[in-house]
TrEMBL record:
Localisation: Periplasm
Pfam families associated with the record: SBP_bac_8 (PF13416)
Main location: periplasm
Organism: Steroidobacter flavus
Family per record: Belongs to the bacterial solute-binding protein 1 family.
Superkingdom per UniProt: Bacteria
Name of the protein in its database record: ABC transporter substrate-binding protein
Length: 381
């Protein structure tokens, strides 16, 4: 039997999956698996139902879950794995990386890859310890180039992370209200102060682009919120400087590091007829051995908690995992209702335009609240 999977075209998203599939022997394993890839932004542009109609396995981000459930294009894990297996996986997975795929009482993807927004900086340019609080980040921006990650969905994601660090994870207290006025205005004030000094060279770049730029240039010393890519912690390309990673900023020292969960999971489409051998292959990808040895050795970023605290893994990757694990454990899970992705796109555009045009924070926040309310009501209708 032959299966077809879709993932994203970065070494972190593709190499380990492709290498694992290449180890399969059709005579021994009774199936083959081929992974295709597309740009990360492609998952935002194409409806999940369209991808699931063409692939057996789809690597997805948790905000797509509501849309997937509404279109009935994924199989719940509960129909393929035992309750004991799922409970064990929940206990072994770091942070909310499995629970983020639980929606309407069932899980819809296996947590392959763990990531969240963390702080990235060039130690040689910062000139000391990385800042801990948002006040320290703003102060640093007055003497060193500090960049915001705001391209694509990242303006909205950074907004949510800062709000979380300020004690109000969006849409949590009242699902019909994105964020209170006091918190929203405070978040936009921080973003505006940083945006006014953020290097224009990275304004339009996604996290991969920003990290690549930081490794090769000296005009960005720190990015306070950016999705962590372990590959940049110990670069192999000539001339690239290592990037240090630490926990996301907090409102006050000792407070919650504000961060919005990313990472990816493997969804099994309704077109797929998974054999026992395929399910065992997926089990192996999430096993201790694969997560602590095979996946990190093939540029992947594991989702198993023990792998994030594995001494050998941390030694190889410049302590990336242990320096950011707290942020991942406490990461904020975004809204996942059907339409959440469209709202995220709109919210980002509103924030970017507001920062660029220096619109009043109150006007920008009002537009965000209106866009969120319209999306939430449409999903509930």
């Amino acid at each position: 039997m032959h299966y077809l999977g879709l993932t994203w075209d970065h070494p972190r998203g593709y190499n380990a999956l492709a290498a694992a599939a290449a180890r399969l022997d059709v005579n021994r394993d009774r199936f083959t698996l081929a992974w295709q890839k597309q740009p990360l932004e492609g998952f935002e542009a194409h409806p999940i139902a369209d991808l699931c109609a063409r692939y057996d396995l789809v690597v997805l981000d948790h905000p797509h879950v509501g849309e997937a459930v509404a279109s009935k294009c994924l199989q719940p894990l509960e129909s393929l794995f035992s309750a004991v297996e799922i409970a064990s996986l929940e206990a072994d997975t770091i942070g909310p990386c499995l629970s983020s795929y639980k929606y309407e009482g069932q899980h819809w993807a296996l947590p392959l890859d763990a990531a969240t927004q963390v702080m990235a900086y060039r130690a040689d340019l910062v000139g000391g310890e990385a800042p801990v609080t948002w006040d320290e980040v703003v102060a640093l921006s007055e003497r060193a180039p500090v960049a915001l990650s705001v391209a694509g969905p990242h303006a909205a994601l950074s907004f949510q992370s800062i709000a979380t660090s300020f004690g109000e994870p969006p849409a949590n207290r009242d699902p019909e209200l994105f964020v209170s006025e006091a918190t929203g205005l405070a978040v936009l004030d921080v973003m505006a102060r940083l945006a006014s000094r953020s290097p224009s060279s990275v304004w339009a770049l996604n996290p991969i682009g920003i990290l690549g730029h930081m490794a090769q240039s000296r005009d960005v010393a720190l990015c306070p919120l950016i999705y962590g890519y372990v590959n940049y912690a110990s670069p192999t390309q000539s001339g690239a400087a290592p990037i240090s990673f630490s926990n996301a900023p907090r409102k006050v020292a000792g407070g919650r590091p504000g961060s919005t969960l990313g990472g990816t999971g493997i969804g099994i489409s309704t077109r797929c007829k998974p054999s026992p051998e395929l399910l065992n292959h997926l089990r192996w990808l999430l096993s201790e051995g694969a997560q602590s040895v095979f996946i990190p050795s093939h540029d992947g970023q594991p989702s198993r908690r023990s792998s994030w605290h594995n001494a050998a893994v941390n030694e190889r990757w410049n302590r990336f995992y242990e320096h950011t694990a707290e942020t991942l454990e406490k990461a904020y899970v975004r809204p996942r209702f059907n339409g959440a992705i469209a709202f995220q796109t709109r919210c980002s555009q509103l924030i970017r335009d507001g920062l660029a045009e220096r619109r009043s924070h109150r006007a920008v926040l009002g537009d965000i609240q209106d866009a969120y309310g319209a999306s939430f009501r449409a999903a509930a209708a």
